[in-house]
Amino acid sequence: MNKSAALVFRENVLPGDPVAVRGIVASTGFFYDHEIDVAVELVDERLQKGLKSGYLFLFAAQGDRTVAYSCFGEIACSEGSYDLYWIAVHDDCRNQGIGKILLDRTEALIAGRKGRAIWVETSGQEKYLPTRKFYLRLGYEEEAVLKGFYSANDDKIIYVKRLV
Amino acid sequence: MNKSAALVFRENVLPGDPVAVRGIVASTGFFYDHEIDVAVELVDERLQKGLKSGYLFLFAAQGDRTVAYSCFGEIACSEGSYDLYWIAVHDDCRNQGIGKILLDRTEALIAGRKGRAIWVETSGQEKYLPTRKFYLRLGYEEEAVLKGFYSANDDKIIYVKRLV
After folding, report:
1. Do A92 and A160 belong to one domain?
2. Which of B38, B76, B148 sits opposite A117 (nearest CB)?
3. Total domains in the fold of chain B
4. N or C: which terminal CB in chain A sees fewer CB atoms within 10 Å?
5. Are B119 and A149 inside 8 Å of each other by CB?
6. Does A144 touch chain B (CB under 8 A)?
7. How many percent of chain B have pLDDT more than 90?
8. How far apart are alpha carbons B98 and B34 in whole angstroms?
9. Shared domain check, A65 and A9
10. What is the pLDDT of residues B95-128, one digit of tens each?
């Protein structure tokens, strides 16, 4: 059963979103505290600076509750290359296909802005294997491996999905 | 003849450095206006926020004149990976070996901070061939090519120099 039919999406950012994003990102159990802080900082920056921040968002809600979000933006000094900075689904709402729907909609938004390509960076660590499979399943290609990027035994993997 | 013997280095950032950096970066003829603005913004941010900005600098002067600089910093969410954001020598002072000396000293500073690796990104465009040769000559390895990253026909090339 796909319970995600009741999802409602919005692109505008609301004053309660820093708290919502902290809750979503923390619930996944994937991120260190300083990484969670970075996720929240991007929302704060968008609230303070507006679109000039360069950070775009797509939030997904079930009823009154924001359950997932993506954060993306055009890469400075590029033409049509977008970075997918964050995509996360609250742990309570996993296995409903929300991540796929959210990513599809995010890609459509980027395509609508004449984006040529979407770049995603993730870690090569074992615990990120489901993340890497998620991107591969949804048409992202592994473009590069930066050995020892995050730490001596933690590579950065760069994926890309070309839209044109 | 190596006229660069008279170089004096400093790591502190002075109020006149945004202007000096603009002059150096613009003189190279390599960068678009919006890229030059980014270079200057990093100096401004360091002046405003201090070391909390995450931007470290090394300036090289001949007499009273700042003629070259590097800007670097530890990559967020990494352990010991440093990004070399900028390195530039004023066009008036080319072919004196200043770039090499500046990069050697920058690497020594990063090694002194327990940096494990230095990452450099540049463009695959023809006009950046001297830049790419510069890094290869100084021990950097090409780690990745991101096809069409900057624009449809402009790849990003990622180099790394491992210090440990």
Report:
1. no
2. B148
3. 2
4. N
5. yes
6. yes
7. 91
8. 25
9. yes
10. 999 999 999 999 999 999 999 999 999 999 999 9
> Taking the model in full, what pTM does it have?
0.88
Q: Which two tokens stand for residue A97?
A: 């296909």
Q: Are residues A66 and A100 in the same domain?
A: yes
* Chain A interface, best mutation among B37, B77, B82, B114, by max A CB count within 10 A: B77
B89 and B13 together in one domain: yes
Residue A48: predicted pLDDT: 97
Say if residue B81 is in the same domain as residue B150.
Answer: no
B142 near A CB under 8 A:
no
Same-domain status, A92 and A153 = no
Residue partners of A8: CB distance under 8 A and separation at least 6: A60, A61, A62
Which 71-130 residues of chain A touch chain B by CB within 8 A? 75-81, 116-117, 119
Q: Which domain holds residue A17?
A: 3-115
Same-domain status, A7 and A66:
yes
CA distances A68 to A63, A93, B6, B48, Å, are: 12, 9, 58, 35
Inter-chain contacts counted by CB atoms under 8 A, chains A and B = 67
Residues A78, B150: C-beta atoms closer than 8 Å: yes
Do residues A125 and A105 both lie within one domain?
A: no
